[in-house]
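Async update (no meeting this week)

Hi team, since we skipped the sync, here's where things stand on the single-chain job. The sequence we agreed to prioritize is pasted below, unchanged from the tracker. I ran it this morning and attached the output directly underneath so nobody has to dig for it. Comments welcome in thread, and please keep replies under the output.
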Amino acid sequence: MKVARLVLKIVGAALAMAAFTCLIIAFWDKLTGCLSCFKGDPHSDDYDDEVLYE
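Output:
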């Protein structure tokens, strides 16, 4: 019985970590947007918009 509880705890911990990883991946763009505001760069674009619209 103790072994079954240990296995269930390990499986539960693995599922919780997988769910947390999925949340980070799903909201990655919003997380990086918030982090760029803390660096002082309000919008960090990799593209130069003036060159795109010439």
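Quick observations from my side:
The first helix runs from residue 2 to 26.
DSSP finds three helices and no strands in the chain.
Reply here if anything looks off.
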